[in-house]
Write a structure and sequence with these properties.
The chain is mostly helical and 66 residues long. It has helices spanning 3-15, 23-47, 62-65.
């Protein structure tokens, strides 16, 4: 299972936790789910990007790769 899939599974599991929460808590939960969606999308992009495109093969520093 890929990292992006694991992140999405956590995001989906949070859905069941919304019951019984206050409105503010539900809003916080939705915000966390949005952040997890962004993280999963980013992880999925990285999973499909060849290492040479990330600068790893060229020995680029972390700052140069970002």
């Amino acid at each position: 299972m890929s990292i992006s899939s694991k992140i999405r599974n956590v995001r989906n599991a949070l859905e069941g936790m919304a019951k019984g929460l206050t409105e503010q808590q539900q809003a916080t939960l939705r915000m966390a789910q949005g952040e997890l969606t962004d993280a999963a999308d980013w992880a999925e992009e990285l999973e499909h990007t060849p290492l040479c495109d990330l600068g790893v093969a060229a020995g680029a520093s972390k700052e140069e790769r970002l």
